[in-house]
Specification:
DUF3299 domain-containing protein; signal; five-stranded mixed β-barrel; OB fold (Dihydrolipoamide Acetyltransferase, E2P); 2 helices; DUF3299; mainly beta; 169 residues; 6 strands
């Protein structure tokens, strides 16, 4: 687990290599992404309604994660905004400082996780005071591909968050 955490921090540090002032200025201009934008051309996402709830006495949800069939590199190093739901990984005080951004409520918790190319590992220098798993958020920051694994799921993307706000269109 320590190596996974070290690898994640290395990926995020590479994404966050711009000076803070430059990143903050860039955060005002971003590319709006939707979850389908993270899929290779021609691939469709697994709709949440198709993913059945599981018996928690069975194998863990990560063992039931569908295989990912590639990633998109179009937005590597770009400032993006993507909506989603927070699955906390690390806390700093009472705020979340690292989390998995997922496309629907309950992903990675109550249902098998989506494929890795439908998950984004997010870190933030300022912990976000989340109101819970049902809160939809918009995350803005530097985006890139990353191959990492947590106890909950394999993840194909990473985002160094500059701004996290409650979801709005």
């Amino acid at each position: 687990m320590v190596n996974d955490l070290t690898n994640r921090r290395t990926v995020i540090a590479a994404l966050a290599s711009l000076p803070l002032g430059a990143r903050a200025a860039l955060a005002a201009e971003y590319i709006d992404l939707e979850w389908r934008d993270l899929l290779p051309k021609g691939q469709t996402a697994i709709p949440p309604v198709v993913q059945n709830l599981i018996d928690h006495d069975e194998m863990g949800t990560s063992a039931m994660q569908p295989k990912s069939s590639g990633v998109r590199t179009d937005w590597n190093g770009q400032i993006v905004r993507i909506p989603g739901f927070i699955v906390p990984i690390e806390y700093s005080g009472s705020g979340v400082s690292a989390f998995i951004l997922v496309p629907f409520v309950g992903a990675c918790i109550h249902v098998p996780p989506p494929p890795a190319n439908q998950l984004v590992f997010v870190t933030t220098p300022e912990p976000y005071e989340s109101s819970g798993l049902y809160e939809a958020v918009n995350v803005i920051g530097m985006f890139g591909t990353a191959s990492m694994s947590t106890q909950l799921a394999d993840i194909a993307y990473a985002l160094s968050a500059e701004k996290i706000v409650p979801f709005s269109i």
